Amino acid sequence: MYLWLKALHIVAVITWFAAMFYLPRLFVYHAMAREKGEQQAIDYFTVMERKLYRGIMTPSMIAVLGLGAWMLYLMPHWLGMGWMHVKLLLVVLLVIYHHVCLVYLKQFAAGRCHRSHVFFRWFNELPVIALLVIVILAVLKPF
């Protein structure tokens, strides 16, 4: 049972991260279209962002959290390990990032987001750092 949960958890993590990498990239293009006044592109990005967030990103996050919690239920001794504490802290930060994406999504949809495409290029790098650390922690279990 545990290995099935782990496999499904990994698939959900991949899907969630793919969406967290792509949504801010859409924000980059959306901001560029806004700066150029390209209304048709703005409308297109608004729809794509909403569908990605609601159809892929949020369900994936829910699966990651649910499957992760289930695995911790089956392996409660991991909660006493330092690497798991750091990993869970990073997961909390990713959930916050996920919700910050929703804030920007709503701002773009309402025409109130004034962040530049350069900001979103940097914003897009945050989950990359988290992914790198999480994978290292999960594989090496350093402490």
Question: Explain this structure to me?
Answer:
The protein has helices spanning 2-36, 39-74, 82-109, 117-123, 126-140. It is mainly α. It has one domain (2-140).
What attributes does this structure have?
5 helices, 85% helix, elongated, 143 residues, 0% strand, mainly alpha
Task: Specify Rg, calculated over alpha carbons.
Answer: 17 Å
Mean pLDDT value: 97
Contiguous helical run count: 5
Structural domain tally: 1
Q: Mind describing the biggest β-sheet?
A: none
Strand content: under 5%
* Uncertain stretches: none
Blueprint of the fold:
Layout: H1 2-36, H2 39-74, H3 82-109, H4 117-123, H5 126-140
Short description:
The chain is an all-alpha fold and about 140 residues long. It is built from 5 helices and no strands.
